[in-house]
Amino acid sequence: MRTNLLEKAAQPPSYSVVLYEGRLPRRANRPLRLKLGEHVRIEADHVHRYCFNGGSALQEDVAAVLSAVRTADRAGPRLHGTGWARSLGIEVPVYERALWQSPRVSDALVEALQYLTGDRWSVEFRSRQGQPTVSAQAHLLSPPGQERAFLPYSGGLDSFALASQIQRERSDVELILVNVQAAHNLTDWKNLGRTRDNELNAVKVAYHFKEPHRTEPTFRSRPLIYDMLACHGAAMAQPAKVLIPENGQGSLGGTLVPLGFEAPHRSCHPGFTSRLSLLVEALTGVFVTIEHPALFKTKGQVLAGLAAHNPETEGWLAGHRSCSYDARHSSRGKRSMHCGVCGNCILRRVATQWAQLKDSTEYEADDLSAATFEASFTEGPPRTVAAKHDVALNSIRSMQRLSDLAGVPRNTRVVTEVASLSRALGEPIDEVREKMEQFLHQHKAEWLQFLEMCGPSSWVADLARN
Q: Does one domain contain both 119 and 72?
């Protein structure tokens, strides 16, 4: 009996999600069944309408598959005390079943998902009834031959900086920003592109999900929705490519210095996007080039470049959020603000310091020179102070560990990562190694300057030393 219990404990948790239309399928052992269009829905037709006149079966199939992936990833909790990986299965109704069931497509989908999330995935497809929705709306794209760039646009500083750079330097390129946001209904077509960013028009994609009571917070599949929709648009609108705006710390840091027993964080990694290119090509017959312009740049370098051409720093810092902490637990009064200590907030503060910007961002933990973590909250520690301390501990140590790699260029993890990037980017390994070393030394310089600003007796410096 003891052996059986041990074997059972060693098995990863298993979850499956069934999306259905009409009547609920009679299947046993299916813990989560959701109705497509009612419980889960990704409205991606704006991407297609922007490119062409009507809808397509493949467009709706892509949206359905992404809906199932997101649901399975969020609804299946990890057992963090025993391991990272889960066994996740999805069953999806699709119009082009033969295409999705073909080994070339299904294998590429599973490979991309497993690389991205660190889980074991299985996929199953059923025939979808009826016909796809077709729109009579005229397209907005320029005449054929216009070079286009699709950019997954989160609204963060990196995506804003890259979009601004392209508009400034490449007037011959049509920039198409794909923005995904939670909404019960898609905004009217006539409101397409109305954003608060000056002259930055985004193609809106709405999603609606019936979330379980306790969702899995890691949500590693999130970038698949942004990037897949951008890639599908690029495949329809050739000649076009996809640009990933993330800086080097965000793209490579999660692989070079993984957190605890977590799988490497590869949300913007070329290893993932190269696999995504294969999936899109298998689905559409079109190879979409995916580029990473800021892959070996730090966020400090990105913001310095943005400020050189857009000196209204207070405005764009206020208009683009970085904090990854739940906004409900990071506020002062009724005013939402940055927590100041999560990985994204620390990186933002390091970057603004290096770029010599006046950081007008409101941080809940605003005094990083304080001797204790609790004292950094000048208006008093919040009720979530213990949880935020754990977040800060991971953030500071991750930045320090990445900085430490600059002194050991032949570190096994760095060598492995350089080889992986060389394959994914199709670049000579010596060139990738040189870029990696320059990036790591740049990160170290920015981090040491930040620690000096915080002061040797600060809680930040104390965590970095330990």
A: yes
E strands, 339-452, where?
A: none
3 within domain boundaries:
no
What's the pLDDT band for 274 if we cut at 50, 70, 90?
very high
Evaluate the omega torsion of the peptide bond into residue 382 and state whether it is cis, within 30 degrees of 0: no
Query: Considering only CA atoms, which of 243, 303, 289, 288 is closest in space to residue 268?
Result: 243
Half-sphere exposure of 410 (CA within 13 A, CB side): 0
Task: Give the model confidence (pLDDT) of 385-403 as tens digits.
Answer: 999 999 999 999 999 999 9
pLDDT of residue 49 exceeding 70, the answer is no
Which domain covers residue 181, as residue numbers? 148-212+220-291
Range among 64-73, 133-142, 333-342 rated most confident: 64-73
Q: What is the dihedral of CA 192, 194, 195, 198, to 10 degrees?
A: 120
143 inside domain? no
Crossing angle of helices 157-169/299-309, nearest 10°? 50
Domain count, the chain: 3
The whole-number average pLDDT for the span 36-65 is 77
Neighbouring C-beta atoms of residue 315, cutoff 10 Å: 12
**Is pLDDT above 50 for 4?**
no
Asked whether the beta carbons of 324 and 341 are under 8 A apart, the reply is no
What is the SS3 assignment for 211? coil
Q: What H or E segment, with its residue span, contains residue 451?
A: helix 429-454
In order of 272, 291, 435, the CA distances from 277 in angstroms are: 9, 11, 23
Of 237, 270, 291, which one is at a domain's C-terminal end? 291
What average pLDDT is seen over the chain? 86
Tell me: pLDDT of 358 over 90.
yes
Q: Are residues 365 and 275 in the same domain?
A: no
For residue 87, what are the CA distances in angstroms to 82, 119, 120, 124, 252?
14, 6, 5, 14, 26
pLDDT at 275: 97
Asked if 161 and 243 sit in the same domain, the reply is: yes
- Tell me how far CA of residue 452 lies from CA of 344, 380, 428, 455, 460, in angstroms: 20, 25, 37, 5, 10
The mean pLDDT of 452-457, rounded to a whole number, is: 96
Q: What's the chain's Rg over C-alpha atoms? A: 23
Q: What pLDDT is attached to residue 5? A: 39
